[in-house]
Design goal:
CATH topology of the largest domain: SH3 type barrels
CATH class of the largest domain: Mainly Beta
Radius of gyration: 32 Å
Strand content: 15-25%
CATH superfamily of the largest domain: SH3 Domains
Largest sheet: 5 strands, mixed
Helix content: 25-40%
Number of helices: 8
CATH architecture of the largest domain: Roll
């Protein structure tokens, strides 16, 4: 979903200040938010507002976007006056954009906000970036990629412009001025008073050491021994190692799959050859949840039901039925959870209607 002009989307002038851009975003978001706008296209409009605002509210991203708007469009067959520069593809040629991005040291942290073809985007990331240079935290929906592959990210995401977190400047060292010994006035040294002060400090330090030794021997050591013995009794003989972070789809063939959430185990059934054979004959093809950063799968077909699990972008779901609730269409997944129709990338017209008496 690409916007022709971010300034037209936010209804501001090209020279609008950051304060005017923020005010326009808040005003429009109140009108088009899906919670207040019953239009079926409200979610798409909200995504367009978020994309425009996330680009124009950062000075560096706005400067790059203004440069793209100012560049003349390429006409087929016309001779180029200057050789083409090796820059990234224009925003219209890329359908994916980031909702969060930051440069921290040698790593680039980002979250994918939207992609028209999420499976193709994930496959391209895994193909062009080696496993040693990338990591995906599925719990926080956060990618971590080495900065050496910045050109790949710039070619895949149209709003790529991470904010660099620079370390704080080191405090300046005080400059010591040389002392002129000839002009310095020598003060008489009181030898007797200085020795008395040192003797008093030594006595106080000795008394403190004796008191600390008494307290350590009578209070601290018995308590420590008791805590150690209690820990030895209550600690199990073998402590199970904490499971590593589950990564999709690399860990689909590992022993970590048994501890993964239900929707991830279902998603792993679609990886590799033979994915179509695991779906029942009455089930719809697998659909991708791509329209939001994270999609809630609820226990029933309404927002009043508790959240069963949260699916990350690109999760593959198998839909087996549908129903309607308060003006929305809800799809039933093959593991019992319900997901709203505007959270899946494709719609299905041949699913059976789930009777009300079969909805728990």
């Amino acid at each position: 979903m690409a916007s022709a002009n971010y300034y037209e989307t936010l209804r501001v002038a090209p020279d609008a200040s950051p304060v005017e851009i923020a005010a326009a975003y808040r005003r429009l978001a109140r009108d088009v938010h899906p919670d207040r706008n019953p239009s079926p296209d409200a979610h798409r409009q909200m995504q367009a507002l978020n994309e425009a605002y996330n680009t124009l509210r950062h000075a560096e991203r706005r400067r790059r976007y203004d440069d793209l708007l100012a560049s003349p469009p390429h006409r087929p067959g016309a001779a180029a006056s200057t050789p083409p520069r090796p820059t990234a593809a224009p925003p219209a040629a890329r359908s994916a954009w980031l909702s969060f991005q930051k440069r921290a040291g040698d790593d680039i942290l980002f979250t994918i906000g939207h992609a028209d073809d999420m499976p193709g985007l994930l496959a391209e990331l895994q193909r062009r970036i080696p496993p040693a240079a990338r990591r995906y935290d599925i719990a926080q929906n956060l990618w971590r990629v080495h900065a050496g592959h910045e050109a790949v990210l710039r070619s895949l995401f149209r709003n790529y412009a991470p904010v660099v977190t620079a370390p704080p400047p080191a405090p300046a060292r005080p400059v010591r001025r040389p002392v002129d010994r000839r002009s310095a006035v020598r003060q008489p040294v009181a030898r007797g008073g200085e020795r008395s002060a040192w003797l008093s400090m030594a006595l106080v330090a000795g008394a403190a050491l004796v008191l600390y030794g008494l307290l350590f021997g009578r209070v601290i050591l018995p308590a420590t021994a008791q805590d150690t013995s209690d820990a030895a009794v209550s600690a199990p003989a073998e402590v199970a190692a904490a499971p590593e972070l589950f990564s999709f789809p690399e860990d689909c063939t590992s022993e970590l799959l048994a501890a993964a959430p239900t929707y991830l185990r279902e998603a792993c059934k679609t990886v590799g050859e033979g994915a179509d054979r695991v779906a029942p004959a009455t089930a719809a093809p697998f659909h991708m949840t791509t329209t939001r950063v994270a999609s809630n799968i609820r226990r029933g077909p309404d927002t009043r039901y508790p959240v069963l699990t949260t699916a990350a972008p690109g999760t593959r779901l198998q839909l087996v039925g549908y129903t309607r609730s308060r003006g929305y269409v809800w799809y039933l997944t093959n593991f019992g959870g319900w997901i709203r129709a505007d959270l899946v990338s494709e719609t299905s017209d041949h699913l059976p209607l789930v009777p009300p008496d079969q909805i728990s």
